[in-house]
Amino acid sequence: MPGEVYCHSLTDPSILGPVPAGTHTLTYFGLHLPATLFADQATRAARKELAVERAIASLDKHLLDPIESVVARDSGGRPCIEAKIPQDIEADLGMPGGHIFHGDLSWPWAADAAALDTPAARWGVATGTDGILLCGSGARRGGAVSGLGGHNAAQAVLELA
Predict the structure, then answer these.
(1) How far apart are CA 126 and CA 98, in angstroms?
(2) Domain boundaries, the chain
């Protein structure tokens, strides 16, 4: 399963609170898991559990020992794993559809038949409303936290000047 792994506590141990020395967080950011996979309330919990299992299996393919061998456990012996699906992100953070990228990801180039008759269209920041440009992660070539969407929106504005 495609994803990214972060260990924020290596640079900021204050996020952990009172835990034993040597304890760290590990964040597995699963990519391309659309909210529609978890839309059915009747199967949501089971699908979420399966997604966690597959994420752990993806990590284990690259590790000498299984990741669960080093996962902290609570007082009841349960692994200290928190999983969020798009519906959880939407409920917790108010991001529609749980989209941290502000919408489904798409290929970073224009389709062959795309109308590229405006600077906004050429730079991939068009919204369909004149004077409003998309300069965040959801822009074509938005680049998540890279700032590319803002750069490209600025280029579109400069092209109009």
Answers:
(1) 22
(2) 3-98, 101-161
Query: CA-CA distance, 105 to 66, in Å (whole number)?
Result: 31
Q: What are the Cα distances from residue 4, in Å, to 20, 21, 22, 145? A: 26, 25, 22, 14
Residue 47, C-beta contacts closer than 8 angstroms, at least 6 positions apart: 37, 38, 40, 85
Q: List the chain pLDDT tens, one digit each, 161 residues.
A: 888 889 989 999 888 888 888 899 999 888 778 889 999 999 999 999 999 999 999 999 999 999 999 999 999 999 999 999 999 999 998 888 888 777 666 667 788 888 999 999 999 999 889 889 988 887 887 766 678 889 999 999 999 88
What is the distance in angstroms between the CA of the first residue and the CA of the last residue of the chain?
A: 45
Dig out the tokens for 127 from the structure: 């919204």
Residue 15's contacts (CB-CB under 8 Å, 6 or more residues apart) are 8, 9, 25
> Which pTM was predicted?
0.69
